[in-house]
What we know:
This protein is an alpha/beta fold.
Amino acid sequence: VALLTGSVKGKKRRLLLEQLENGTIDCLIGTHALIQDDVVFNNVGLVITDEQHRFGVNQRQILREKGAMTNVLFMTATPIPRTLAISVFGEMDVSSIKQLPKGRKPIKTSWAKHEQYDQVLAQMSNELKKGRQAYVICPLIESSEHLEDVQNVVALYESL
């Protein structure tokens, strides 16, 4: 079992990449570092990636191409609309961890209608002032000429 993240550097990284290429690593855990050109899978049985929501379509394809027979487990605490759709339509199985890490408080997830936009922004502002976090999930990253009425992250960010 090996861990490859962006913080693995120098001699340790070179050794890990060598072990990956010669097939001595059975299970690889990592983040975006896994899709770098110098990362070559050879007989890796399982790859576990964290922060799946940061992997776009192209990045997931690159990861798949690195190991044709490799099982991949994508993990995320932030399911994005595309991932939800893929899991609903059967292209991805879902495994759920239903217990919180020790000492972790539950996260409150809310769904709001467009008519509640100003109220939601005010509530988010209050939470941020308290040092808390707030997330807005949009179906698109950028605008699309085919989906003009669908909210995208870039436009939302610019409007805030």
